[in-house]
Amino acid sequence: MEAGLGASGSFVALNNRVSQSVPHLHVHVVPRTKGDGLRGFFWPRQRYGSDEEAEEVAERLRSALAAG
Length: 68
Known about the structure:
Blueprint: H1 2-5, E1 9-16, E2 25-32, H2 51-67
Antiparallel strand pairs: 1-2
């Protein structure tokens, strides 16, 4: 994720059961860069500009994972 998105680091959080209608475990892996605005567990969230932009980010992540 760091290599694929050019992040300086990452923030990883786990959540289970609390505030969920169907109990399950899920993981958040958030790319970090200096000055990104992350405060505690709250980071500035924004929508992708388009479906194409979201797919481009997904492809960058897939390529980085495949390169290992």
